[in-house]
Write a structure and sequence with these properties.
Blueprint: E1 4-9, H1 27-35, H2 50-60, E2 65-71, H3 75-81, E3 88-90, E4 93-100, H4 112-122, E5 130-135, H5 142-150, E6 155-161, H6 169-172, E7 177-180, E8 186-190, E9 209-218, H7 219-227, H8 240-250, E10 255-260, H9 273-283
Parallel strand pairs: 1-2, 1-5, 2-4, 6-10
Antiparallel strand pairs: 3-4, 5-9, 6-9, 7-8, 7-9
Helix pairs in contact: 2-5, 4-8, 7-8
Length: about 290
């Protein structure tokens, strides 16, 4: 088991900032959506951000060391979770910040793989340890996060049952799908899947599996692939699924897909805010940080 969780929060939040005409959001919520990183939007009780709930589940799952990757203008994270660059105490979690700097000549950050590479350069101890990685704008369950901590596989990801996702079908159809062998070892990831190939990607339970960017990595073997990650030809970013597949090609049978069948709340666009607020009110009416794991 390991105690390290890296949270990706340095993205540009482009889809969240898009214009949207909605009658179920307050002026303050719209302002936050336009100005804040997605994980800091106040969707919880007393206006607390979604990231509180992710950290609460991380603590329940047994994580101790949290590394939040923020952008160059991410000072608001420090107002919520600690003013120091490293070793802030937030309800018993040790929180440190890594900064994803934008390369010269670019306007937006260089993608999730670049974010993680910059983090392990700033915290090189991760390269000799195991660590988990997840998004800041998804709420993964404590059980899923614990499964990443407890798996004996060097690398892993949560492979979600696509049919359990409570999103519109059009949105679900855009998710990249994972191809696993009979032992749930990752073989491939297919982006933008068409209906005619889905049958080939069903796992041993007959399920279509998708990744929601919840990973466990062995720092030592991943580092080279992070450093040498190619740029995605369409999106012009360095992406973690590319790193994962390159690692699998070099080290087959080292990356297990851990099957889960549950919804994962997602805060991608303004249209998601009301749904996430309702989900938190129903399932997380009160965050009691003093509760034992």
């Amino acid at each position: 088991m390991h105690d390290n969780l890296v949270i990706l929060a340095g993205g540009a939040s482009s889809r969240m900032k898009k214009e949207a005409v909605l009658d179920n959001l307050s002026a303050e919520e719209i302002a936050q959506a336009n100005e804040r990183s997605k994980g800091l939007i106040g969707v919880g009780a007393s206006g607390r951000p979604l990231l509180d709930y992710l950290l609460w589940n991380a603590k329940k799952a047994g994580y101790k060391n949290i590394y939040i990757i923020i952008g160059e203008k991410g000072e608001l994270f420090k107002e919520f979770y600690g003013s120091q660059i490293k070793n802030n105490d937030f309800h018993g979690l040790n929180i440190s910040f890594a900064v994803q700097y934008i390369p010269e000549g670019r306007v937006k950050p260089f993608g999730t793989a670049d974010a993680l590479f910059q983090a392990v350069e700033q915290y090189p101890e991760l390269n000799s340890q195991f660590y988990s990685v997840c998004n800041s704008d998804n709420l993964y369950s404590a059980a899923a996060l614990r499964a990443l901590r407890e798996t004996e596989s060097p690398n892993a990801f949560i492979s979600y049952d696509r049919d359990a996702m409570e999103f519109p079908q059009e949105r679900i159809s855009r998710f990249a799908i994972a191809k696993l062998d009979e032992n749930n070892q990752l073989l491939d990831i297919l982006e933008k899947p068409s209906e005619d190939v889905l049958e080939q990607y069903k796992d041993s339970e007959g399920k279509i599996r998708v990744s929601m960017n919840a990973f466990k990595f062995k720092g030592k073997t991943l580092y080279t692939h992070l450093k040498n990650c190619p740029v995605h030809p369409e999106r012009d970013e360095k992406e973690l699924p590319t790193v994962l597949l390159n690692s699998v090609k070099e080290n087959p049978n080292t990356t297990v897909g851990i099957p889960f069948s549950e919804h994962v709340p997602d805060l991608t666009a303004k249209e998601d805010i009301a749904d996430v607020k309702a989900y938190l009110a129903k399932y997380y009416p009160d965050l009691n940080w003093n509760t034992k794991n």
